[in-house]
Amino acid sequence: MARITAGLSTSHVPAMGVAWDSGQQDSQYWAPVFAGYEWTKKWIAEEDPDVIILVYNDHASAFSLEMIPTFAIGCADDFPIADEGWGPRPVPPVVGAPELACHLAQSLILDEFDMTIVNKMDVDHGLSVPLSMVYGSPDSWPAKVIPLAVNVVQYPPPTGERCYQLGVALRRAVQAFDQDLNVQVWGTGGMSHQLQGARAGLINQEFDSRFLDNMSQDVHALRAITHLEYLRESGSEGIEMVMWLIMRGALGDAVEELHRHYHVPASNTAVGHLVLRPTS
Amino acid sequence: MVDNSQFDDIPGTTVFTAERSHEGFHLNQFCMSLKDPRNRERFKADEAAYLDEWPMTPGQKQAVLERDYNAMIAQGGNVYFLAKIFSSDGVSFQTAAASMTGMSVEEYAQMMLAGGRSPVGVRSIKEGR
Question: How far is CA B27 from each of CA A266, B73, B77, rounded to the nearest angstrom?
């Protein structure tokens, strides 16, 4: 049977991808951002997951304002790297896991989660920056990836509670898949940041620190955070952190924190990164 | 009836609601078109002519020509779509964000290096916290 062996969360700041691609790993600005992923690079080589269910948001790359799916799951064989205005990132194309993705789509919909099914989709920095942080620069990505895109662009995103519950359903669906697969779930985006208006540049280290703690210590507190609280406390784009709760929901009741990294700033954003292991 | 007036209490922040998305539809779709390098070339060759191909309001077009991101947001623009404009210009997200705050690029970069903008005092206008 397929099993979820670990969860990982990370920011997906586009400038991290630009810095990585242009060889700024050792610069004074970027070295401390990337240093927190060194542990993870060793860890992932040992874990060697078969499939990553990668929760992220599209940033006006695959989805325009013509259609705005709240939850979308990618069932394609592969996902090309998007051109976001400066040409596609020079990273390998993302290879899907269509058999598992189709099973998940059907299971989730019958489990009351009305997923949008996507059979053709470019993927942007939201998905590719986490892969670069965790795997570095391989010729091809070592794991297959099922993109799970969440709308956090147009208000309202799904609630944190809804995201958590989707994670719970995702766990049930993965465990019902009749192949021996090592599956990880990644939740990306955040942490506190605001990219617009006179309040741009907002960072709330206390909020972020509590959020990181409670991913393993008190997920109930995180599930109760309202949209208004995210907006006030973590900035208008900090609300991306609801996506971390899909990952957390997929890990079951209890988890152990294996690794944590937090750094301010990367461009306009507080970078946060966790690796969690389900223990229940 | 939905009531989004609570968001007006957060200073310097525009929440991209369905209503704003409707108002900014053509502005944001124009931005989206800049994903295609051929459109970027056409836009750079004659910005006003390219904008005239889109059913945007004169105010939206003017804001684009002036790269006034706050004005674009006030007229329905969303920052992830607007990013296609400054990316086409070769301008970083940090420089574009700085331009919305009234700070110089250097001042803004210094603020971020020092830990970012504190939430103290910019959470709520009414509650003054």
Answer: 28, 10, 6
Question: How far is C-alpha B128 from the chain's CA centre?
Answer: 26
List beta partners, residue A146.
A53
Catalytic annotation, pick one of A12, A103, A193, A273:
A193
The C-alpha atoms of residue A202 and residue B120 are separated, in whole angstroms, by 10
B16: nearest CB among A84, A155, A268: A155
Radius of gyration of chain B (CA): 16
- Report the alpha-carbon distance of residue A221 to residue A189 in Å, rounded: 19
| Architecture of the domain delimited by B16-90 | Orthogonal Bundle (1.10)
Is A193 an annotated catalytic residue?
A: yes
- DSSP per-residue codes, A39-79: HHHHHHHHH--SEEEEEE---SSS--SS---SEEEE-SSEE
In a mutagenesis test of the A interface, which of B9, B16, B79, B127 is the best target, namely the one with the most A β-carbons within 10 Å?
Answer: B79
DSSP state for residue A177 in the 8-state scheme:
-
pLDDT in tens, B47-93: 999 999 999 999 999 999 999 999 999 999 999 999 999 999 999 99
The answer, as to whether pTM is greater than 0.90, is yes
User: What average pLDDT is seen over chain A?
Assistant: 98
Q: Where are the domains of chain B?
A: 16-90
Question: Residue B12: its chain A contacts at CB < 8 A?
Answer: 197-200
Architecture in CATH of A3-278: 3-Layer(aba) Sandwich (3.40)
Confidence at A280, pLDDT banded by 50, 70, 90 = confident
Residue A59 is among the residues annotated as catalytic for this protein:
no
Domain boundaries, chain A: 3-278
Is A59:B80 a contact under the CB 8 Å cutoff? yes
Backbone φ and ψ of A187, nearest 5°? -115, 130
- The H or E element containing residue A185 is strand A182-188
- Measured in angstroms, the CA of B127 and the nearest CA of chain A are apart by 12
A233 touches chain B (CB under 8 A): yes
The closest CB to that of B124, out of A61, A155, A232, belongs to A232
A60-93 tens-digit pLDDT: 999 999 999 999 999 999 999 999 988 999 999 9
DSSP, collapsed to helix, strand or coil, labels residue A117 as strand
Alpha helices, DSSP H, located in A48-177:
98-110, 125-135, 160-175
